[in-house]
Amino acid sequence: MKTAKDIISFMESPTSENKDLIIKAFNFAVNAHSGQRRYSGEPYFNHVYETGKILAKLGMGTTIVVAGLLHDTIEDTNIPKEQLEKEFGKEITFLIEGVSKLGKIKFRGLKRHSESLRKLFIATSQDIRVVMIKFADRMHNMQTLGYVPKEKQLRIATETLEIFAPLAYRLGMGVLNRNLEDLSFPFVYPSEHKKVVEIINQRTHDDIVSLKKVSQRIKTRLAKEGLTNIKSDYRIKGIYSLYKKLERKDWDINKIYDIAALRIIVPTSNDCYKALGIIHGFRRPMPGKIKDYIAFPKPNGYQSLHTTIFTQLGNVVEIQLRTAEMHKEAEYGIASHLSYKNNVNYNQSKLDKIWSTGLLSKMMSKDNSNKDKKIYNTKDTPEWIKQLANQPKNTESTEFISELKKDFFKHRIFVFTPNGDVIDLPVDSNPVDFAYAIHSDIGNHMHGAKVHGKLVSLDTKLKNGDIVDIMTKKEFCPNPKWLTIAKTSDAKRHIKSALKKLEK
């Protein structure tokens, strides 16, 4: 039997007021959805219950969990908005309305598809909480997709795989990203899914046995060097993620070393580097497989040290070294900042990663009472969210969707200005894209570029870690050829605009 206590049990130290509000919302939702059924034949209430539970597991606060329990009340029941507002207040009603509006977005037909995407990203830029509830709603819908009519399954799975899963990744939510991908995969690519599952079944058992042996040896060696307060576990690569990597490696499984990876969690970032040195001191690392995502985090905030070592067992193993905070960030991303936990110390560098203007002033409190509310300042919404929300409506639908996949959901690279500022760009970007990513004026007056101090052509593909210096002169202006060189839609848009002004 489902109870409100089940949801509350996933919440850390909720107050009595928190618990009462969850119970009230639980009972309200039970009555609101009474008699309603899903495709599976189960009570409709099960869906909103699971949505609320997913949000609680993600560490969401009381306001978001309550809105999750009630998220279908406006759309699927006869209860008026005014009653919700009277019972639960304006803030929760605002979130429910936001989810209801997103629920009406249908990704059907190319033109409607692109317009629906714009609405989704506008909602994301305005209040991330609405999208968090939508993620939880989508997660449970994907878990029960097998009960949905066949003609709807492919559409729902495809939009999940191409829109919601990549958006979860860009927001740093590894858990959601992997689950949404793996739940969608068998519906979108059934034969490929079957093939990858067979590969994983053949390899996983042996890999796990090997990881356990390697883990014990590493922990023993680290303890000898004074690193004792550590935890270790392993992770199996997501099925869809493995599929994409197999495609890049010509389906040669022997070229993939991270089907299973060992995670070692240490107290501090300095301990990560110390542990890396100790491990390399007794096991030889594979050249080119050492990655420092602590000094150079991924655009979604992911931090970790990665290395791949040759073991005494005659195989290779990927090891990921991180702190507990880095691990939480890697798994839950932006969700880890919307926690209900008491006495959490939110420093400004972490808050700057929360990509929603004014969001924290509305929500960073342990419950709904005014006495606990604090005002936190954040920087503006990041450029990639703003660009998605502000795409011109007259953009061709095919162009918009193509640019979306290429610019925002593709693998990213980290490139540096001479001053050490990090610019993140899509793979295959060049100095033209880099210049316009800094500022349109720099791009419009560019006359050359240097990478690591050496002159390069403007179509040079940039790589992770490149230091790029853009040379400018006032008398220079964009060249029409740059439109064929530029890879990002942002650069192309600025070039077209500048060329039109020159024509006039």
What's the SSE blueprint?
Layout: H1 4-8, H2 16-32, H3 45-57, H4 62-69, H5 73-76, H6 81-103, H7 110-126, H8 128-143, H9 150-170, H10 174-188, H11 190-224, E1 231-236, H12 239-248, E2 260-266, H13 269-282, E3 291-292, E4 305-310, E5 316-323, H14 324-332, H15 348-351, H16 359-363, H17 383-389, H18 397-407, E6 412-416, E7 422-426, H19 431-438, H20 440-444, E8 446-451, E9 454-456, E10 468-472, H21 482-485, H22 489-503
Parallel strand pairs: 2-5
Antiparallel strand pairs: 1-2, 3-4, 4-5, 6-7, 8-9, 8-10
Helix pairs in contact: 2-4, 3-4, 3-8, 4-6, 4-8, 6-8, 7-8, 7-17, 7-18, 8-10, 9-10, 10-11, 11-12, 19-22
Can you walk me through this structure?
Helix 9 (150-170) runs antiparallel to helix 10 (174-188). Helix content is 53%, strand content 11%. It folds into 3 domains: 4-188, Hypothetical protein af1432, CATH 1.10.3210.10; 190-329, Beta Polymerase, domain 2; 411-503, Beta-grasp domain (Ubiquitin-like (UB roll)), CATH 3.10.20.30. A hairpin with a 5-residue loop joins strand 4 (305-310) and strand 5. The protein is built from 22 helices and 10 strands. It is α+β, with helices and mostly antiparallel strands and 504 residues long. The strands form 3 sheets. A 5-stranded mixed beta sheet has the order 1-2-5-4-3. Strands 9-8-10 form a 3-stranded antiparallel beta sheet. Strands 6-7 form a two-stranded antiparallel ribbon. The longest helix is centred in the middle third of the chain and has 35 residues, at 190-224.
